[in-house]
Amino acid sequence: MAARDREDAKAYSDLVTARSSSLFHTAYLMVGDHQLAQDLLQEALVKTYVAWPRLRDVTKAEAYTRRTIVTTAISWRRRRSFHERTVDVLPDVGVADRVEELATRDALWAQLHLLAPRQRAAIVLRYFHDLSLAQTADAMGCSIGAVKSQTSAALSRLRDRMGPEVTLFTTTDQGMTP
């Protein structure tokens, strides 16, 4: 193995070790299922590994992988077989004073997954990962104007369905994960 190959393997390994948790969270928010998120992350990491020698700036490898997660999830959603899952989701049993919060979170979670894939991607990247407009546009492979448009449309749909007081949870303590 050449020295360059060893360096590339080490850099890739460092990325996987350091950022897999964050990347998994993105994948989970995109597909809403732990097993599918694991598959999505694995596929994105394989695509990143294959593209590694072509990456001009390996410091942007995480952004490349995140973009791969988003684009792969969108292409998965277009497949007919993606919608053919039979999984019963059991509600979280929470403390009595958190019941309303959990109900709101579950309702928001359900509504988030009814959004179009690009709208969901815009919401996930902007609000759950707190990316800038430019970073979100880069991850989605579109213009900043398209991110603004997708985000606005998504928020409008969420507010129409859930009311004007809807708030988006962030990836802090409880996050969106059930």
Radius of gyration: 18 Å
Q: CATH class of the largest domain, anyone?
A: Mainly Alpha
Overall 3D shape: elongated
The percentage of residues in β strands lies in under 5%
Q: Do you know the CATH topology of the largest domain?
A: Rna Polymerase Sigma Factor, Chain: A
User: What's the total count of β strands?
Assistant: 0
Whole-number total of structural domains: 2
The helix-strand sequence is HHHHHHH
- Could you name the ranges where pLDDT drops below 50 across 5 or more consecutive residues? 170-178
Estimated structural class: mainly alpha
CATH architecture of the largest domain: Orthogonal Bundle
Key features of this structure:
Rna Polymerase Sigma Factor, Chain: A; 2 domains; 7 helices; Arc Repressor Mutant, subunit A; mainly alpha; 178 residues; disordered C terminus
Explain the overall architecture.
It is a single chain. With 178 residues, the protein is an all-alpha fold. The chain folds into two domains: 3-83, Rna Polymerase Sigma Factor, Chain: A (Orthogonal Bundle); 96-162, Arc Repressor Mutant, subunit A (Orthogonal Bundle). It is 66% helix and 0% strand. The longest helix is centred in the N-terminal third of the chain and has 29 residues, at 3-31. It starts with a helix and ends in a 16-residue tail after the last helix. The model is unreliable at 170-178 (pLDDT under 50).
Write a concise synopsis of the structure shown.
The chain has helices spanning 3-31, 34-51, 61-78, 99-112, 117-128, 133-140, 144-162.
How would the blueprint of this fold be written?
Layout: H1 3-31, H2 34-51, H3 61-78, H4 99-112, H5 117-128, H6 133-140, H7 144-162
Helix pairs in contact: 1-2, 1-3, 2-3, 3-6, 4-7, 5-6, 5-7, 6-7
